[in-house]
Design goal:
about 140 residues, alpha+beta, globular, binds adenosine-3',5'-cyclic-monophosphate
Length: about 140
């Protein structure tokens, strides 16, 4: 069964000019892009996206970072898309990420870690509509 997940290429990776290299990894892993947009989030929008982390000590810094430059938000579709995307991304902390993963190759720190991916299909069901309406999703 095809599943959908939300992927975000974060401001650090956008400014390093590696959007294409990251997208290539999704496509090579048979994940299809069914919606895509580039936008510069306000700090309030970044806070709203990461609302589940509101009580964490890194919340303010994370929202500042996520609104520091444009991001590319995408809906990826494919078999086991959530888990597949998380394997491609690697661990949150790039120092702990497996060799050859997106974060090992492109991330500079646990905060500026190149990409975000939904951690479950329940999260994807909340995160996808944050960026995309039903009409934006290609069928
Ligand atoms: P992401 O997968 O988008 O989910 C939450 C984000 O918070 C994470 O990636 C990092 O960008 C950021 N972050 C900053 N510090 C930490 C931390 N100590 N633990 C987890 N996430 C962190």
């Amino acid at each position: 069964m095809a599943e959908r997940t939300l992927s975000i290429i974060k401001p650090d990776a956008v400014s390093k000019n590696v959007i294409g290299e990251i997208i290539k990894r999704f496509e090579s892993a048979q994940l299809k892009i069914v919606a895509i947009q580039m936008r510069h989030l306000t700090k309030k929008e970044a806070e709203a996206f990461y609302d589940v982390h509101r009580e964490r000590p890194f919340f303010d810094s994370l929202a500042t970072f996520m609104s520091s430059g444009p991001v590319v938000a995408m809906v990826l579709e494919g078999e086991n898309a959530v888990a597949k995307n998380r394997t491609l991304m690697g661990a949150t902390d790039p120092k702990k990420a497996d060799k050859g993963t997106i974060r090992a190759d492109f991330a500079g720190s646990i905060e500026a870690n190149a990409v975000h991916g939904s951690d479950s299909s329940a999260s994807a069901a909340v995160e996808i509509p944050f960026f995309f309406s039903r009409l934006d999703l290609v069928r």
